[in-house]
Amino acid sequence: MSEVLSQSEIDALLTAISSGELDAEEMRKDEVQKKVKTYDFKRAYRFSKDQTRSLTRIHENFARLLTSYFSAQFRTLVQIAVASVDQLPYDEFIRSIPKMTILNVFEAYPLEGRLVMEVNPNVAYAMLDRLMGGQGVSAEKFRSLTEIETIVMEKIFNKALENFAEAWKTVVDLEPELDVLETNPQFMQIVSPNETVAVISFSTKIGDATGMINLCLPHVVLEPIMPKLTASHWLASQKKARSEQEIQQIQERVKKATVTVKAELGSTPLTIGEFLNLAVGDIIQLDSLYEEPVKIRVGNLLKFKGQPGVSKKRIALQVSEVLEEGVEENG
């Protein structure tokens, strides 16, 4: 926000311009001069701003899903929110995380390649402590996981990956599967060091323990679905989802609509005089034989054919044929 000048400062500025101490033209040139931004060719930016915004929206939903899942799993207050979405070389990501951490390496069919969810030890050990009956306190000194602890952590994050698939459902149907759980970043080489990756950082708080969860998505893995990470596709998919929901609502309403269904045994022409002279016991000859199927109409449309009969001492009709399209007839 620009600084507001006082009246005395405005008067002093006008006096300086009038006396020639300040050149108004030079000031104007300084304002219009283009700002130069340094570009580092070693850091290739592969994700556009539009795609970065889409990744942010997707993983904000993922953060909400993880919050609900972890809160129920650990039976304590859990807060997870997207802190940042950056793109950087994979080697820089590896150097930015602790030397001893929890790395969940997973695949997400139909995408080809591996992705990583890195969990800060502060958060990971608080999870283990909570599951083992503790208060959710993080360890003072970090060490390698035991075999039992590894199995417990794998179960936790296998379920978390289901929430990852749910968050991406609006873009693509994924089937994530945990591949391996590592603790040393140096043993994890999923792409080349110079490959650009999107890193989504989540600020995480479980009980009194705080830390970061980082999701590493290599560009080479997301490349087949990059066109779907645009605002136009995002809005189109939302519109399509709304349309499908509206269609489903219409179908539910149509199913509850009341229609008239009637069966015709046959018909015959009568004069007004003959109709008025009908009496009990008279026989009316119809234009159909008793072996022929009965016409069944829905409204005025001929929709079925069937045979009359009796079911549980009541007159009934058995449908024997469904017509492909109703035929509208008058009379």
Automatic annotation (TrEMBL):
One of its GO terms (biological process) is positive chemotaxis. GO terms for cellular component: bacterial-type flagellum basal body; plasma membrane. Keywords: Bacterial flagellum, Cell membrane, Cell projection, Chemotaxis, Cilium, Flagellar rotation, Flagellum, Membrane. This is Flagellar motor switch protein FliM. GO terms for molecular function: cytoskeletal motor activity. Gene3D superfamilies: CheC-like, SpoA-like. It comes from the Bacteria. InterPro entries: CheC-like_sf, Flag_FliM, FliN-like_C, SpoA-like_sf. It is a peripheral membrane protein.
